[in-house]
């Protein structure tokens, strides 16, 4: 954790007021944003550095189909895609949110405020788009499922899934404009305790 820790806690007096409101050096979207966990790029663990699992038009269809299933927040979409790929692919917030904005501008989804966040629901135009491209949508989801099956056969799928969930939760909770010191201490304590329990296994 790069919070300026000493013994697992942020250093007292450490400047947590970086340009984006979080600790300095986090960069846009926090430490688990673009190029997040372990230097992972948008292409996900299975996509390789600098490569994307889906191009722009494919990702739009993928998100649109998931939104058709039920209204979803951006974070929900990231988590759902990562789970369906067995943890092998996790699009970054820096890719998901601009794509959602584009879908909204195209009239294929509409944003509905739910507290501090926005959930996206499909429109009639979005439903028609999915029907017109049903074969392409089916192929995209088949590709995602195949990636998940390959991941389960070749790697520690449950561990990667759990790590992916942790990364997404940390991004959601700590990637905002302001994170107070008490929250940083609490998160650090939880992570330190998890590390100690794993070490004792």
Element-level helix/strand string: EEHHHEEHHHH
Main sheet record: 2 strands, antiparallel
Count of distinct strands: 4
Total helical segments: 7
The structure class reads mainly alpha
Outline, from the CA principal axes?
A: flat
Identify the CATH class.
Mainly Alpha
- The proportion of residues in beta strands is 5-15%
Arithmetic mean pLDDT: 75
Low-confidence stretches: 1-51
Radius of gyration: 18 Å
CATH architecture heading: Orthogonal Bundle
**How far apart are the termini?**
22 Å
Number of domains: 1
Measured as a percent range, the helix fraction is 40-55%
CATH superfamily: Winged helix-like DNA-binding domain superfamily/Winged helix DNA-binding domain
Q: Reading side by side through the largest sheet, how are the strands ordered?
A: 1-2
CATH topology: Arc Repressor Mutant, subunit A
Protein model, in words:
- It comes from Sphingomonas naasensis.
- The protein has 201 residues and is mainly alpha-helical.
- It has a single domain, classed as Arc Repressor Mutant, subunit A.
- It is 52% helix and 8% strand.
- The protein is built from seven helices and four strands.
- The protein has helices at residues 56-69, 74-84, 93-105, 124-132, 134-154, 157-174, 181-199; strands at 5-6, 9-10, 109-114, 117-122.
- It has a two-stranded antiparallel ribbon. Strands 3-4 form a two-stranded antiparallel ribbon.
- Helix 2 packs across helix 3 (93-105) and helix 2 packs antiparallel against helix 6.
- The chain starts with a strand and ends with a helix.
- 29% of the residues are buried.
- The model is unreliable at 1-51 (pLDDT under 50).
